[in-house]
Amino acid sequence: MDRRSFAAQQDQSAHRDLAVVAVALVGLSRLVEPPLVWLVAVLLLGAMLLGALQVLADEASPAEAAAGVAIEALILPAVAAVACLGAIRLVPFGLWLAPALAVTWLLVHRTLALEARIHHAPTGLSADDRTAVLVTVLLVAFVGFTGVAAMVPGGLAQPTGGAGPLPETNLLVLAAGDGIIAGLLGYRAVALRVGNLVDALWSAATYLTAIAIGAAALRAMEIPRLMGPALLTLAFYLWDALTGTHPARRRELRWIWQTGLLAALGVVVTAWNLLLRP
Question: What residues does each domain of the chain span?
Answer without folding.
Answer: 1-124, 149-278
